[in-house]
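#help-structures

NK: newbie question. if I give both the sequence and a SMILES, will the prediction place the ligand too? trying with K80
OV: yes, paste both and it writes out the complex. here, I ran yours:
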Amino acid sequence: KKDVEYGQYNGLPRQDQAMQKWRENRFGQFIHWGLYAIPGGIWEGKTYPYASEFLRGSAKIATSTWDSLIYQFDIPKYNPKEWAAIAKNMGVKYVTITTKHHEGFCLWPSEYTDFDIENTPYKKDLLREFVDAYTAVGIDVNFYYSVLDWHHPDWRYDIKSDEDRAAFERLKQFTKNQLVELVTRYPEVKGLWFDGTWDNSWKKSGQFSYELEKLLKNKRPGLIVNSRMRADEHGSRHFDSNGILMGDYESGYERRLPNPTDKEVLTRDWECCMTIPENQWGYHKDWSISHVKSPLELIEMLVQCTSQNGNFLLNFGPMGNGDIRPEEREVAKEIGEWMKVNSEAIYGCGPADLEKQDWGYYTYNEKNGKVYMTVFNNPVLGKYKIRLPKSHTLKKASLITKQVESLEIKQISPTDYFIIPDKINNKKPFVIILEIVDRASGKFHQKALT
Ligand SMILES: Cc1ccc([C@@H]2N[C@@H](C)[C@@H](O)[C@H]2O)cc1
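OV: that's the protein plus ligand as structure tokens.
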């Protein structure tokens, strides 16, 4: 064991009310919005296929040229109430918005920089309007904040000289000031999603990140931070040098999910953040340049995350004028229709600790003791196999839509059962509710998650 003074300092998984709500939420909306939404991946008539929020680098644009985009940020179509309605209808319980991405442009009127919403034609506190609109419809609000700041003259990729050290100390103070400002001006905020913390300069700031986490949690009791915020004093990130997760949940699954049978992730809280195109977080004008995930692909990811004790954060990239693009409206509508029927298998659910089968995923709600089977793959066999521990019995199977009172069950061995639906006519993923009992205790219980 290494002596780690600035690693994890509270016991995980957190069981306080705020974290339980974060866990029960399961499904969130990510929003990437900034100056990059104005060019939308196209510069001087050339389409750049890389992530649009990196266009400044991809198109080798001078910082001063890029920063002058601020004068075009007049967002005539910005309608946070409509954004919140779209999110509500999609079925998300929380939202995470980029208050400041790597470009350094702040969506709120910050005391510590002029590179913010106040100096745009819009002028008003866009973030306050956003927080109010989402809070009004009962969606929890989190802030994404990039420590990496391309606009700030004191950013350093590494600390190689006294000048670097002095500059980065100023940057750290600026970062602390902005974060205290955010949790103070917007006390409704539930969590902070840190990004841009991979450079050596931050890896050498482990103690600072430890003290910053403590400071922010003192200012906002219950605040939830992701593992990307932290480095320990040896430069380890996400997990400290003893392999202990830092922050409150693991946030390494970016545009990828764990292997569906990975049992290790069941032991901690984690969140997967996902783009609808292959790799666009900010608005890109041309989505024809890559695969665009269908609502069904995205629903399957949401169900898989829930089945493995994770949250799913689906990204939207609003347009430079503040409108939500038609493709994203359509995704929100179709996922929302599915959630209206099946969200009981998602909200407040987690892993069922049953052996995964090919037809799809199990989720489990320990409050009502119900196990949910979400079917994505119809077996040619026409029967759905369930395998239970010997001590358990499958008592009942019914459709969440209650089209039929119950489905036929056939036990084919001490551990295996077939569920035999009268007909399989589903074109969409569907949910079967299972009543499984441990004969000894009379109810299904999940192995305690260590
Ligand atoms: C190499 C790389 C750096 C930063 C990112 C940012 N993290 C995502 C959550 C987005 O904010 C993306 O811009 C992605 C890839």
